[in-house]
Amino acid sequence: MAALQQRLFGTNGVRFVPGVSHDLDFVIGLGEAIGTYFGSGEVLVGRDGRLSGPAVSNAVGSGLLSAGRDVAEGGVVPTPALQYAVKVLGYRGGVMVTASHNPAKYNGIKVSGSDGVEVPRLDEQRIEKIYFDGSQTKADWKTIGVARQDASVVRTYQKGVLSRVGAKAVAERKFTMVMDLGNGAQSVAAPYIAESLGCKLITLNSVVDGGFPGRGPEPTPDTLKDLSSAVRSVGADLGVAYDGDGDRSIFCDETGRVLWGDQSGCLVADYVLDRHPGGTVVTSVASGQAIDAVAKKRGGKVLRTKVGAVEISRTIIERNAVFGFEENGGCIYQPHIPVRDGAMTTALMLECLASRGMSFSKALAFVVPRYFQSKTKIEVNPKKVEAAMRSVEKQAKGTVEKVDGVKVWAGAHSWVLVRPSGTEPIVRIFSEAETQDAADQLVRKFAKTVRAASA
Ligand code: MG
Predict the structure, then answer these.
(1) What angle do CA 295, 300, 304 make, to 5 degrees?
(2) How confident is the model at residue 2 (pLDDT cuts 50, 70, 90)?
(3) Cα 413 to averaged position of ligand 1 atoms, centre (Å)
């Protein structure tokens, strides 16, 4: 066996298919390892609405108890609600049972520290080491943990989000909003927040259902056609949709156009920088360049990290940044809590539109410069990934950045990013340019390079 440590955590927690890739014994063992890592105190456990959620959260809770930790069961809650409750209710840490936007058969485990933020990569490795070494603490009958329910998680979260926005100014605008909850966990929290902000609310797929019968757990322009047509048919001011665990939000403007998270993230970032002059915004190397222009205008700074919400959260904390976003719709507002939060982002977007006093599409055109993007993914033999990346570098003419994968600047406003996936045997290629043709061409050119080097 190679000396490489075996991994359980991917880009965003541990993911598995209960009863197929991993059984519940695995989950109990992992719960024991997490409990051993925490060392003391009470841990809050929550879950999204997946069918395997009750079994997996009971198993991880059993593991925590077995390692001597006390456990509070929060039930079905959005991921950001669990994280916020961990922070403000004083828990030692949190465990969220969720597979986010993955299809219904998946589940997963995400671990947060006492600040509510996902634990750093090095601590994920500590948990893995405890698991693979079999060095979990095993409590005896006296030291074993005790369990209780905590029914205050959602209420605590709703109050926290509402305390961060000027509810009166938003309510005066009397927004009509269509909210597509995708049968996910925000169903239990976000509608109340929107109504408290005076919105006339129309909901779609608002019953929590782990089979995700509505439009599936991943919000993308392709899966949000119902949202788009509902916004147009009722004449709403905006639409919003969440992923399965409610940490990401994708918006659609009053014309029904569904926006990538880059664009909505830039609009909110502009508003946040107006409120926090000179602030710093964090995003990944995969996000578009519009944010650079937006921040420059406001006298703010932009920092770029590797792809992944954990990297963005941790950089926000280290560099005391005020806001962060990802192109998949994950936005982070540091004054609330430095994790992605779908309902907090919605509240900020409403406040932003209320302060602008113009339609969503006009605000967007006014604030966010328009670039064109293109993307593809290529299956690559894992043994040939390195060779493929070397050949991409060789092919590069222009400035090369290597924060995550290889990003090549082909011109002042055009770039391509070639990046091996952290979880699957694929290489992802993203590009951005001033025309759609130029963006497509860049992707085609580098796709050819990757295919040739990995054939
Ligand atoms: Mg998610």
Answers:
(1) 70
(2) very low
(3) 30
Q: What is the dihedral of CA 33, 35, 38, 41, to 10 degrees?
A: -170
Segments forming the whole domain that contains residue 186: 164-367
Residue from 158, 169, 242, 259 nearest 205 by CA: 242
| Residue 382: pLDDT band with limits 50, 70, 90 | confident
309 Cα to the center of ligand 1, angstroms: 10
Exposed, middle or buried, 42 (CB in 10 Å: 0-12/13-18/19+)? Answer: buried
Instruction: Let me know whether 313 and 290 are in one domain.
Output: yes
Instruction: Find tokens 């609405």 and name the residue.
Output: 49
- Phi-psi sector, 333: left (phi>0), alpha (psi -120 to 50), beta: beta
The pLDDT tens digits of the residues spanning 400-414 come to 999 999 999 999 999
Total number of domains in the chain: 3
Q: Which two tokens stand for residue 137?
A: 């603490």
The answer to the question of residue 4 being in a domain is no
Which residue in 336, 164, 371, 364 sits closest to 266, CA to CA? 364
Residues 213-242 have pLDDT tens digits of 999 999 988 899 999 999 999 999 999 999
Among all residues, which ones are annotated catalytic?
A: 100
**Whether pTM exceeds 0.70:** yes
Joined tokens for residue 188: 């239990």
Mind listing the pLDDT tens digit for each residue in 253-300?
A: 999 999 989 899 999 999 999 999 999 999 999 999 999 999 999 999
pLDDT digits (tens, 9 = 90+) for 173-194: 999 999 999 999 999 999 999 9
Indicate if 47 and 115 belong to the same structural domain: yes
Angle of helix 79-89 relative to helix 153-162, nearest 10 degrees, comes to 90
**What pLDDT does 371 receive?**
94
Domain end (from 367, 397, 412): 367
Neighbours of ion ligand 1 (CB under 5 A): 100, 243, 245, 247
The rounded Å distance from CA 149 to ligand 1 centre is 24
User: In this structure, how many other beta carbons lie within 10 angstroms of the beta carbon of residue 235?
Assistant: 8
Strand order in the sheet with 13-16: 9-10, 13-16, 107-112, 93-97, 42-47, 70-76, 147-149
